[in-house]
Amino acid sequence: MTFRDVPQIASFTIRLATIADAAPLTAFGARMFIDTFGADSRPEDLDLYLRDAFSVPRLTSELTDPAFTTWIVEDGAGELAGYAQTCDGPAPDCVSGALPLELRRFYIDGRWQGQGLAQRLMSAVLDVVRQQGRRTLWLGVWEKNARAIAFYTRHGFVDVGSHTFWVGTDPQIDRLMTRAVDEPAARPVAEAGRDA
Asked: Which pLDDT band holds residue 183 (cuts at 50, 70, 90)?
């Protein structure tokens, strides 16, 4: 399927999430995590992680905490197609840029991957992060998620280190990536134009 084969791409809405989005985001985020990492995690570890990271109380807390900013992508029917979230907090030592902010979550539903929606969401995130006066965006991405690493690289992120990410009791390695937000996002290469 090519970009031209998706006539409704223009009907997507990217907006800031509200408290009313807590339950739908909980279900969507858990489904995206399972789709992406479920095959590589033990069921008991996956369950431990999901119960902590994707619960309605947790999402409600994040949506009311000023340290978090959450964007959602909805299709023309109002169904979730993706979401992103930043979090203000201490950055790892390897993140050396000024005024850092973490891109904690970035998900696009599999049926919309490769259609340009992730680029639109990344642009929306970067616009707001710039408006907030931040100058560095950083993230952790699983070292075995080559597709996501390629997407972030195309959007100006560079690998600066690693840290352990716990899925239940399973220690996994995330690559830490960072980019300056006071410069425009790199244009994706047409041939490589698949996105996260």
From this structure: low
Question: Which domains are seen in the chain, by residue range?
Answer: 3-183 (3.40.630.30)
Using alpha carbons, list the distances in angstroms from residue 10 to 13, 24, 80, 183: 8, 22, 15, 26
Closest among 101, 100, 106 to 14, alpha carbons compared: 106
Does pLDDT of 62 surpass 50? yes
pLDDT digits (tens, 9 = 90+) for 4-53: 343 444 589 999 999 999 999 999 999 999 998 988 999 999 999 999 99
Beta strands in 51-157 (DSSP E): 68-74, 80-87, 100-108, 136-142
Tell me if 165 sits within 8 A of 174, measured CB to CB.
Answer: yes
* Encoded amino acid at 132, one letter: Q
